[in-house]
Amino acid sequence: MEPAAQQSVTEVRSVTARLSVLGSEGEHRISAEFLTPAGVPYEGRSAAISGTASQTETVEFNLPVAGTLIDSSNLTGTWKVQFFLDGQKFAEQPFELTP
Amino acid sequence: MIGRGYVQSNRVISTALVDALAPRLLWLIAAATLLISGRAFAFGLIVVDGSDSDWTLTQSCFTKPVGVNPSPIQLNRACVENNNTLLNTGSLFTLYESPSAFPTGVDTYFGFLYDVDKDGVITDNDRAFALFFPAGSGGTPASLNVYTAVSFSLVNSYSNPGDCGGPAGQNGWSGARSGTVVEMGVAYGCLGLAFNDDNRLFRMGAYPNFDLTYLARYNGTSGTLIAQTPPNDVSLLVSVSGANRNFLSWTNPTLPNLHEGVLILRSTGAPPNAAPISGTAYLVGQSLGNASVIYLDRGQSGVNTFTDVGLTNGTRYYYKVYNHIGLNSFATGNVPSSSGVFSEPTTRSSPSPMWCYSVGYPSLQQPSTDLGVGIFTASNLGAVTANLTTINNPLTDGGERWRPAQLSGAVQVRSPIVPLFNRSGKYILTGDQAGFAYVIDSQTGSTLWTGNGGTALGDRIQAPLGVQLNQYANAAFKTAHPNRDLVFVATRNNSATNNKVFALSSVDGSVVWTYAPNNLDIVSGGMFVDYANNRLWVGARSNGGLQSSLRVLDTLTGTQLAALSLGDLDMGVNVDFVTSQVYLANNAGTVYGVSLSAMSTVWSSLIGSLSSYPFPTGGGFIASFKSGSVASYSIGGTTLTQNWSTPIATPTGVTANYATNKLYVGSSDGKLHQLNGTTGVDEKQVLVSDQNIGMPTFDSTAQRLHVGTLDGRICAFQLPIP
Lengths: 99, 722
Prior knowledge:
The complex is a heterodimer of chains A (about 100) and B (about 725).
Chain A: E1 14-22, E2 26-35, E3 41-51, E4 56-64, H1 69-72, E5 77-85, E6 88-97
Antiparallel strand pairs in A: 1-4, 2-3, 2-5, 5-6
Chain B: E1 6-8, E2 11-14, H1 21-31, E3 60-62, E4 77-83, E5 91-97, E6 108-114, E7 127-133, E8 143-148, E9 154-158, E10 173-178, E11 181-187, H2 188-191, E12 199-207, E13 211-212, E14 216-219, E15 224-227, E16 235-242, E17 245-251, E18 261-268, E19 287-288, E20 291-296, E21 305-309, E22 317-325, E23 329-330, E24 341-343, E25 355-358, E26 368-370, E27 374-378, E28 383-388, E29 400-406, E30 417-418, E31 427-431, E32 437-441, E33 447-450, E34 466-468, H3 475-480, E35 486-490, E36 501-505, E37 511-515, E38 528-530, E39 535-539, E40 550-554, E41 560-564, E42 574-576, E43 581-585, E44 590-595, E45 601-606, E46 615-616, E47 620-625, E48 629-636, E49 639-647, E50 654-657, E51 662-665, E52 671-676, E53 682-687, E54 697-699, E55 704-708, E56 713-718
């Protein structure tokens, strides 16, 4: 969260989802889907990674919050970000946004 | 020993290591002088004897192949190895291993598919090379058969291992089976290849039950096996609902290498919960998890629409579209998201929608209307969309005017549609959360320009773009900017101080001036252009109260004319020409009236946090409160008087039908509410969604409301509401 101490939709400027992938040899695509507390797909992002078996690749996906429709529509509760590697879901992480 | 490389879940975790190659090549050259008896090649290293005892070098292997039908043959290892001894030719060796003895009572084949023409996709132009073991045969195959790679038509059959081509003395094939192991060696000459020309799409398999590996790219020269990532997905999948039908459209990946056809899954109750498995042939009507296959095509099909008919009105149907390339290698189908899209056929009789257009990601901003002609908006999909309004033709009503214009980031701004100087037609002004500003031709969907020469203006654009049109401007503007309009763009950067306001030329998007005071917080709401005074009013946040939040700029030069500290301003600035004031509300709930001429506060009142900008009504405004109500206020001098207040859950901003004195507002209850403009009575409601809906817009020509939804649709409703 940015700022780190905040969870309010009016105060949180953005949420950054950071993912590290170890041993992703070759070219692959990492995708992230942000889901609202009701489970509605809110936004999707993707990034290409290319590494070796011994490398760690890190990707970041940034979700703006304050001043966006999350704020104006008061979409508060437990959000979730799901990660996909070449289309296969392999991780997810919840986060909280409050009024 | 089976080597270091393996493919798992369709991705390579590791393959042969580069540092292993140098000593191996030396060893191979030394071995080239050996005479190897039996069925091994004279120039080969690996003895094809039906055991894996010789597979002690680095090899590239697939994990256990995906078994469509695991009987009678299962493979638990499938490996490939290149043997190049003379640097201009060589052999390809493959190893198949089963967890139990291979059956001998049926005709069996072990082989691989090769992208012979190297076009990145396996078609019938390519070949399958297979050892043929007739039923009852032992460890020696009857022949090496060569087939077309998709329809499996026999091209050649070589019963004599030396007959299939290649340099004299270095040609041929060899194979052997023993218990759980099948080995196979084929000279490059037999494959029509040479060293340095051996980088191909590759797939191993055993037949008759087609236990196939994933597709991979095998480079024999370097000894690497890289899993083929899934083919590209289709893009811009949408659906338009109509009476007893849903009309899907999408954009296929570029022909021919990236697209063979598509497979469409449909489900009800929930999105499809299973995906087609690469290497599997499906049939229309076949069940797959909770879904069924409703369409399938091949042959590099250019089909990019599908009409699903005979459906039940009001039922929610979910769709996922899977692009596929050769050998039924399927894309992820996660378009626009892993949930695909849903669409609900409609009776087209009010209060049901005339149509809904599903894009799969939220579209809560107020759409823009070309009266009686069409509707334009955008979404978090990051694409600007255009739908037709054809009152007298239900088959085209709600259809796309053009395929969505894909931008670089999510779009949450309302996009004005304006005529631009010295151009015919109308143009859509928009910006995205990747920081780019665009002008799009409303007639064709093509991008006229991307501002600042295609370079992002900031981290994000969240505020609607403003414009000062030359044809409506005063003499001072025409003198300063004689041959152009000005388009205003403000940023929402990852900073509370370095945001900027740009004026762009309508001609080509070049920057005319930049306001960069180094103390401007993020701008999220709409700007107001005062044509009479050539002023641009910009509301911003205040960096925790440290910075002034309302800036008034000279539109001709970008010079700051006024700066007021009014707290955090996320919502737009609007003018009331009756009071000659602009109205704005800060995030803490104070509403301000600011003199248009003096640029100073006339009045202010703490009324509560709003969810949208104060909507001017001529001597007053309508306020939508986050706490759950819509209220009307009148302004008398510096006094604010509430006329009425109506409970509406998390209301959006309002839109007005002045002819009937009705207000329309969206809500988190998923309904469109019709309020009486005089009394505020919540007269009628229309259920749109089980999620939030956005701020509606009114088409006075078609007598329709258009509204976007959190669940990713734009819907049209005919008035009056029954």
